[in-house]
Amino acid sequence: MIKNWQLISLIVLVYVIGLIVLFPAKVAIGFAPIPDNVTIGRVDGTIWRGSIERVESQGLSFHDVGWRLKAADLVRLRATADIDIPRHPNNILQGQAQVQASANAIKVRDASFGADLENILVLSPVSSPIPLQGGVSMRISDFELGSPVCNALVGQVIAVQVQAQFGARWENLGDYETNLGCSEGRIAIAMPEDNLLGLSVNGNVAPTGIDLRIGIAPRDGAPQGIRDLLQWLGQADSQGRRYFNFRL
Asked: From 25's CA, which of 109, 129, 182, 218 has a CA 20 to 30 Å away?
């Protein structure tokens, strides 16, 4: 009788473990509190490793998004998943990130994304006065979700081999680095002026508004088309820089 109970217990244990390991991701997603403005396509795989055919929200969509959940972190009462956004014709960017969720915080670490500049500009609330192209990479070493945006943020955005179109010609504008931080819950932006356009940007961004102080003073070698556009910004100061505020 004891051996029978041991065998039954073993079978039940194996069944429970198998149920946990192979638990379908689409069933888990069905219980998740998904916001009304988020649409999710077909879900494949298990809760530990799977993919979503499409995630769409407010006109922005990502395809074939994959995840890999780390079981060891569940012992610490937190969920950690490696997220992958692959190259896809309809993905505005691609890359990887680690997302960590606990009872009191949602964090993103070691995130690295790449995109084409012209695709990223589509998300801008203001259109560029001239066509631009180039590559963009974003690295986020630490981010913690807060109100309205963040409790912590350490990151960098780099635009490389940027070009602007003047007439039928594309002119080189060089590379640009922007540091990201968190200030009073808003994303703090700081771009130093050590670039071909002498472009500097300082301020903060949040869903509630944008407040940026922008300065520019093209250096030798900058396209004449840029210098011509600057005439619309008024007179330069004693150091040859022009400043303007951008608020939304």
From this structure: 109
